[in-house]
């Protein structure tokens, strides 16, 4: 972060030249896609919040968690999106590391190398966080069918398994690894948008922020083993995405071409609305 701050200030005060004259203009579809991408960036934080907020002290206020997550995600996202846009337009670069190296070297010699190395190191830390989050999700999924012991050995085994799967997938894709990664990153928002909509409606309108947390861990508790209302609400939201979804080389949405791009934010209304209808008057009573 300190190195990116130096680069940002250097750009703001004109210390970094812009060799490519910008082509000014406004494109509604491009702006919509960028907005959706920014929304997906913030939505992608949801699994991390769920995974790591469990380690906070019990008396931590919900408002404290919400505000810290909101400002952290919003400020960092806005900052890096603007910085990335400047590098793409003004430097004419499509590779972020190449753009960082070229622009940083304009600040002072070899600064680009330091910034690139720092970025790669941060990427390794992020991969570790992703791996741990994936382990928790996978263990939870398996635990839904068969009780899993809550030990460090189980966590280590699943982390190793996920690492091997990642490495195997990368080796299998070979030179197409980046294409496959971009495809996966495109699919993730399509899956997360209706899921987030269902969660928000459930939290603010159905449960109104009140959950019996200990009951969440009981298969026969008040919430049951499977949240059938949530899954039935998720289905139409995901189905609403398909005509607008664009997966390069896999799925061209029939309506996406007519509007000039994809639009997964359209899933919010059917997913959230159905969750509200199915849970009318439910509150915290028995039932998922």
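-> sequence recovered:
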């Amino acid at each position: 972060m300190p190195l990116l701050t130096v680069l940002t200030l250097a750009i703001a005060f004109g210390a970094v030249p812009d060799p490519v004259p910008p082509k000014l203009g406004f494109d509604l579809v491009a702006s919509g896609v960028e907005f959706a991408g920014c929304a997906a960036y913030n939505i992608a934080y949801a699994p991390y919040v769920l995974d790591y907020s469990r380690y906070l002290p019990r008396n931590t206020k919900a408002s404290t968690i919400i505000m810290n997550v909101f400002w952290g995600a919003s400020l960092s996202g806005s900052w890096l999106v603007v910085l990335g846009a400047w590098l793409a337009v003004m430097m004419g670069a499509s590779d972020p590391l190449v753009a960082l190296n070229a622009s940083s070297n304009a600040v002072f010699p070899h600064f680009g190398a330091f910034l690139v190395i720092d970025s790669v190191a941060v990427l390794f830390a992020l991969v570790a966080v992703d791996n741990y989050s994936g382990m928790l999700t996978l263990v939870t999924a398996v635990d839904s069918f068969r009780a899993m012991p809550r030990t460090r050995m189980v966590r280590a085994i699943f982390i190793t398994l996920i690492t091997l799967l990642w490495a195997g997938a990368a080796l299998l894709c070979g030179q197409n690894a980046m294409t496959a990664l971009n495809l996966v990153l495109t699919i993730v928002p399509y899956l997360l948008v209706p899921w987030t909509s269902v969660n928000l409606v459930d939290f603010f309108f159905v449960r109104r922020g009140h959950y019996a947390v200990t009951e969440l861990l009981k298969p026969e508790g008040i919430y049951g083993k499977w949240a059938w209302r949530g899954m039935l609400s998720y289905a139409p939201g995901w189905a609403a995405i398909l005509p607008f979804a664009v997966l390069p080389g896999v799925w061209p949405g029939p309506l996406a071409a007519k509007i000039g791009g994809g639009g997964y934010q359209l899933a919010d209304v059917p997913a959230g609305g159905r969750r509200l209808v199915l849970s009318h008057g439910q509150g915290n009573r028995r039932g998922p």
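Residues 1-126 form one domain.
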